[in-house]
């Protein structure tokens, strides 16, 4: 990033010359402004914050040295100055030393000397910027480590306590926003979040575990007034930017000092639990508006499980759907604790799998592949996710139970076989067939083997090679064209399947027919 330079001289031609004669861009600078006296210069410096100011000594209203003296008096010590002076003003130049003027250039300017001086000035500024950045990074790391100690409830070290005490003074209040996100999405998430949160120096992003991130932020208002409007708006904007992620966010209760930030984290975790029943998608939950809501841990597990398994015994899909709907509504209404709700649905899924295993042939292998059962520690699963699993599981299992009826099974297989014969030239897959006929892919594969005697892939290749033989006999197409017409994306794959079935290449086949 280029350094900013402000040019000040009461002679318009001199200003024009400074802009034209000196290759500012090549020297790492950009001219951010020009003006004609010291009074205007003070205003420009306040607005533009230049890194370097080149200023003439003799100017109306306020001369260069008066301007520099006033600027230093206001506490601006980092700005660099180069004064422009004539031989007769050398005494002024010596006086300028007490105002920490970096360099002086004699008028009329020697362009080569001016370029050399400015280049050296740029190198000094670059070194200062680098040192400042390293110092800021080191300080930020100290602050992050100290805040993490406080967040996790550890006994603070003397150094950490000092850092937190000093840092706490920079804001009236402090708070925590927890972000729960899949561990595999963390790198992508952190890129989005960093781009947004880096705007604020009073926000600290600290990873507490693989799927949980803490955003510690300073509030513009006192802790008694809760989360500041600005911080809340920033976090809500971040939530909107995370629309492509499965991410949950919750804000805790504000505290007056970072020393007590663990309290904010604990209350944010309580608020985060409420995302389990939230149906509004990505958003920010706030402990302040949720603290009076409580979860229950007791519900009629036995009766509900009996209704679910009873529906299987009667092969009554409508009764199953009704029981699943009742579970969805009652748990949400009673606000059963997320941990209990998660355990219960996973328990039901295991019971259903066990029942299906007892009802189906052991050698089919279908029960273990009907549906996936999530782990208990999958915190990103919402109540809607679990109910969808329960309903999907029912659809698959009842389809399977019904298809055990031989006549019904034969009917569906005939429909599937007809569809394969009609579409084998296309990019057909077992997954596509399963979606079309509303069957689980694993079950569909077993069904085709049981009824046809061969698997889906074998049947597909047989049909394609049979059609290829017919086309080759016509002797109207190249081998590669035949391959494409029967549905192969590569000639190599076609050749492999052809030779496997006929023990000869397409060219050899054409010689024999």
UniProtKB/TrEMBL annotation:
Residues 414-512 form the HTH araC/xylS-type domain. The keyword Signal does not apply. It is found in: Cytoplasm. The keyword Cell cycle does not apply. Gene3D superfamilies: 3.40.50.2300, Homeodomain-like (1.10.10.60). The modification 4-aspartylphosphate is found at residue 56. It holds the Pfam family Response_reg. Coiled coil: none annotated. Its main location: cytoplasm. This is Response regulator.
């Amino acid at each position: 990033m280029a350094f900013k330079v402000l040019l000040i001289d009461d002679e318009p031609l001199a200003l024009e010359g400074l802009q034209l004669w000196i290759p500012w861009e090549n020297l790492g600078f950009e001219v951010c402004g020009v003006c004609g006296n010291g009074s205007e210069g003070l205003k420009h410096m306040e607005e533009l914050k230049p890194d370097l100011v080149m200023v003439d000594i003799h100017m109306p209203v306020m001369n260069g040295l008066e301007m520099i003296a006033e600027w230093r008096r206001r506490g601006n010590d980092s700005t660099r100055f180069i004064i422009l002076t004539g031989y007769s003003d050398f005494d002024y130049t010596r006086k300028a030393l007490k105002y920490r003027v970096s360099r002086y250039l004699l008028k009329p300017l020697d362009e080569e000397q001016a370029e050399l001086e400015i280049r050296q000035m740029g190198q000094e500024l670059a070194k200062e910027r680098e040192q400042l950045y390293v110092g800021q990074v080191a300080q930020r790391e100290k602050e992050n480590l100290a805040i993490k100690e406080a967040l996790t409830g550890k006994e603070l070290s003397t150094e950490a306590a000092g850092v937190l005490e000093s840092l706490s003074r920079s804001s009236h209040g402090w708070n925590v926003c927890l972000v729960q996100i899949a561990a595999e999405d963390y790198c992508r998430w952190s890129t989005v979040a960093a781009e947004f949160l880096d705007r604020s120096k009073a926000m600290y992003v600290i990873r507490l575990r693989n799927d949980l991130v803490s955003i510690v932020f300073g509030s513009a208002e006192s802790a008694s007034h809760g989360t500041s409007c600005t911080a809340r708006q920033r976090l809500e904007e971040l939530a909107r930017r995370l629309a492509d992620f499965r991410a949950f966010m919750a804000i805790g209760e504000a505290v007056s000092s970072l020393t007590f930030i663990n309290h904010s984290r604990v209350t944010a975790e309580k608020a985060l639990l409420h995302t389990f029943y939230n149906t509004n998608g990505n958003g920010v939950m706030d402990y302040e508006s949720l603290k009076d809501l409580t979860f229950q841990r007791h519900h009629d597990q036995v009766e509900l499980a009996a209704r679910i398994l009873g529906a299987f015994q009667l092969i009554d899909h409508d009764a199953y759907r009704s029981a699943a709907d009742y579970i969805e509504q009652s748990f949400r209404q009673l606000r059963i604790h997320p941990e209990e709700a998660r355990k219960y649905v996973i328990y039901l899924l295991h019971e259903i799998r066990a029942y299906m295993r007892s009802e189906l042939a052991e050698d089919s292998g279908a029960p273990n592949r009907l549906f996936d059962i999530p782990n208990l520690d999958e915190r990103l699963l919402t109540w809607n996710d679990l109910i969808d699993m329960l309903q999907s599981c029912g659809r698959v299992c009842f389809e399977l139970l019904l298809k055990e009826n031989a006549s019904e099974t034969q009917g569906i297989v005939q429909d599937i076989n007809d569809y394969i014969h009609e579409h084998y030239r296309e990019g057909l897959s077992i997954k596509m067939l399963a979606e079309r006929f509303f069957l689980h892919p694993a079950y569909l594969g077993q069904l085709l083997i049981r009824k046809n005697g061969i698997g889906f892939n074998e049947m597909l290749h047989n049909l394609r090679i049979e059609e290829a033989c017919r086309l080759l006999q016509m002797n109207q197409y190249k081998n590669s064209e035949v391959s494409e017409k029967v549905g192969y994306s590569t000639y190599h794959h076609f050749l492999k399947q052809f030779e496997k079935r006929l023990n000869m290449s397409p060219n050899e086949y054409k010689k024999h027919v």
